[in-house]
Design goal:
This protein is of the alpha+beta class. It has three domains: about 130 residues, Immunoglobulin-like, CATH 2.60.40; about 70 residues, no CATH class; about 230 residues, SGNH hydrolase (Rossmann fold, 3-Layer(aba) Sandwich), CATH 3.40.50. The strands form four sheets. Strands 1, 2, 3, 4, 5, 6, 7, 8, 14 and 15 form a ten-stranded mixed beta sheet that branches. It has a seven-stranded mixed beta sheet with strand order 19-20-21-18-23-24-25, with helices on one face. Strands 11-12-10-9-13-22 form a six-stranded antiparallel beta sheet, with no helix packed on it. A hairpin with a 4-residue loop joins strand 4 and strand 5. Helix 8 crosses helix 13. The longest helix is centred in the N-terminal third of the chain and has 33 residues. The termini are far apart. About 40% of the residues are buried. The C terminus is likely disordered. Bound molecules: 2-acetamido-2-deoxy-beta-D-glucopyranose (3 copies). One 2-acetamido-2-deoxy-beta-D-glucopyranose (NAG) binds next to loops.
Length: about 575
């Protein structure tokens, strides 16, 4: 046969092959969509992710197991339970995402206050329930859940506010519940942070593009220097690696090896940049600031109720605010926490100084914790910053009041940190710092680590927290009277340009993990999430305003200087 005939036959075969392939893909997708269990979906994802080849810098199955120490079976079980606890409903879209007009539209959605059992009368101590109906851009009912909604009840007049608990009924309906904690008129606010379709995009980013924020280090010897990319995980086939995994804490970190220099010439660490063009034009329409990104949902009729004074019937059957999951509320701009802590206000510098006299206060975390350091520095006239010649935003920072023997230290947590260059010699992991503390009744440790982990699969955060938790347990074992305070994540202002790197959905998922992992330990949790969500007039901000920071620091101080400092071990 001639060459041409062969060519012809081969072409036909290829064509048939393609048709068959396409057909089987569509069939499989339909089938997936119908009844494939979640695990299978994950594997499917992993397979299709190979299409992206070099973009998948992490590993075929999530947290580069080949690069880190393998978790024990106990740790693996904990990890699985944690991941289950943050399971988020997915839109049933299989491979074809719905048209934009079929995605959730806050402008077409509504909420309704559920009438009380007492003929529209509400009393302090009752619960308020609100029903939210999500609609798409055509005004049609949504049929599935997975949207991220935030709820708040507030009274501007009393500067009072409380966060609501949102329940996803997974059919386009949501309930929000609020404990009624003060008298007077109170207004319900509901916000759609993301549509479920937008969450699906964020989830895909988190699993498939964990290197969308990347880091860099300069390696230098003499006059020769090279800048290399670094991350928790790197593709091994893109060149040899330098392994900067911490030998003590076990936290992993890698850079590509410089061409001319050895690994031990690394001098600094900094943010490298943000990957661009990660989503399609169509997908970017799911993140429009005044359309479907943190946009209020309106009430069908009224959003306001009047709350009457508590009835004095014995109604202890009703679930209290704590059962609802409420950790506190604002009244006159003061946070009133539940859960056994007596909140004091430290309006006078002298009261703070008295509380902190002879104390060593160590703060380890991101910039949201650095705000505590900065706050104390501005309110305590006798507390002087000691110049360690560090960049202000990166630290380490130190402040001393030598009259009252107060020491304050702040350090950023170890990488990943999206910061301006910091010397490698000043980079520390929290776990290692904790292991270096003697601890004791005069030692206060405040931790706040969350914002720089939002771009990674949750396992990366779990592992980091596990190392920190082990160090906290060791610290409390050797010095049980040490005060340990943990600041949680908080909602923030969201912008479409940065949404793939900073979203409340990422933060919320990490926040749930943080709470579960520190549960049962003798640490005070400062619920930054609810403190920001509940605030009656401040908009969300990655770095909450001073009023909120003061409440957080007051809460820490209330705990540090509570009566009967001795703890039962
Ligand atoms: C994950 O990776 C390991 C090692 O590369 C492999 O043995 C295992 O089968 C993978 N698991 C899945 C679910 O793909
Ligand atoms: C990097 O170092 C750590 C700790 O020494 C080790 O467990 C890990 O396997 C190393 N990674 C690679 C890719 O060699
Ligand atoms: C309930 O309140 C009323 C009026 O405030 C009071 O007279 C009455 O004694 C109270 N009852 C109980 C059981 O406390």
């Amino acid at each position: 046969m001639s060459r041409n005939v062969w060519k012809y036959i081969v072409s036909i075969l290829i064509l048939f092959g393609l048709i068959f392939l396409l057909r089987s893909i569509t069939i499989e997708q339909n089938w997936n969509y119908q009844r494939v269990p979640p695990l299978y979906k994950v594997q499917n994802w992993i397979q299709s992710s190979n299409l992206y080849g070099s973009l998948l810098r992490f590993h075929r199955n999530r947290t580069c197991p080949h690069l880190g120490q393998p978790p024990s079976s106990e740790e693996e079980l904990e990890e699985r339970n944690l991941l289950d606890s943050i399971d988020w409903p997915q839109p049933p879209s299989g491979s074809a995402p719905p048209a934009l007009t079929q995605t959730s539209d806050p402008a077409h959605s509504l909420f309704t206050i559920v009438p009380s059992q007492n003929g529209q009368r509400w009393y302090v101590g009752d619960q308020l329930e609100v029903q939210v109906h999500l609609h798409d851009f055509n005004g049609r009912h949504k049929r599935y859940g997975g949207d991220l909604l935030l709820a708040r009840l507030h009274s501007p007049k009393y500067k009072a506010g409380v966060a609501g608990q949102v329940l996803d009924h997974k059919n386009g309906l949501y309930s929000a519940r609020f404990p009624l904690l003060w008298e007077g008129s109170a207004q319900v606010g509901l916000t759609m942070v993301h549509s479920s379709e937008a969450v699906a995009v964020l989830r895909r980013m988190r699993e498939k593009q964990p290197d969308r924020v990347y880091f860099s280090s300069i390696f230098r010897r003499g006059s020769h220097s090279e800048k290399m990319e670094c991350n928790v995980c790197l593709l091994q086939d893109k060149g040899p690696l330098c392994n900067f995994t911490d030998p003590h804490s076990g936290d992993q970190w890698y850079c590509y090896k410089p061409k001319m220099l050895s690994c031990d010439t690394r001098i600094d660490h900094a943010i490298g940049g943000y990957l661009e063009n990660l989503i399609t034009k169509k997908e970017s329409l799911l993140f429009k600031s005044d359309v479907n990104l943190k946009v209020p949902i309106h009430a069908s009729t009224t959003d306001t109720i009047n709350v009457l004074p508590a009835r004095n019937e014995s109604s202890s059957q009703k679930p209290g605010p704590v059962q609802l999951g409420t950790s506190g509320y604002y009244y006159q701009d003061s946070w009133r926490p539940f859960g056994g802590i007596t909140m004091r206000r430290f309006d006078e510098a002298s009261a703070i100084t008295k509380c902190l006299t002879n104390k060593l206060v160590y703060m380890y975390g991101d910039s949201t914790l650095r705000q505590w350091f900065e706050y104390l520095l501005t309110v305590l006239p006798e507390l002087k910053e000691f110049n360690l010649q560090s960049p202000k935003k990166v630290g380490p920072l130190m402040a001393v009041d030598s009259t009252h023997n107060i020491l304050l230290e702040y350090r950023f947590h170890g990488p990943p940190t999206r910061i301006q260059p910091i010397r490698v010699s000043k980079l520390r992991y929290i776990a290692n710092e904790l292991d270096g503390l003697a601890g004791g009744p005069d030692t206060v440790v405040a931790l706040g680590i969350w914002a720089h982990f939002s771009t990674y699969p949750v396992e990366v955060y779990v592992r980091r927290l596990r190392h920190i938790r082990k160090a906290v347990v060791r610290l409390l074992d050797r010095a049980p009277e040490t005060v340990v305070v943990v600041r949680t994540a908080n909602p923030q202002a969201l912008t479409q340009d940065f949404i793939l790197f900073k979203s409340d959905w990422f933060s919320l998922q990490l926040d749930v993990v943080l709470r579960v992992m520190f549960k049962g330990l003798d640490v005070l949790l400062v619920d930054a999430w609810q403190m920001c969500l509940a605030h009656p007039y401040h908009p969300h901000d990655l770095h909450p305003p001073r009023t909120i920071v003061q409440n957080m620091v007051d809460m820490m101080l209330s705990h540090v200087c509570r009566d009967g400092t001795k703890k039962i071990v």
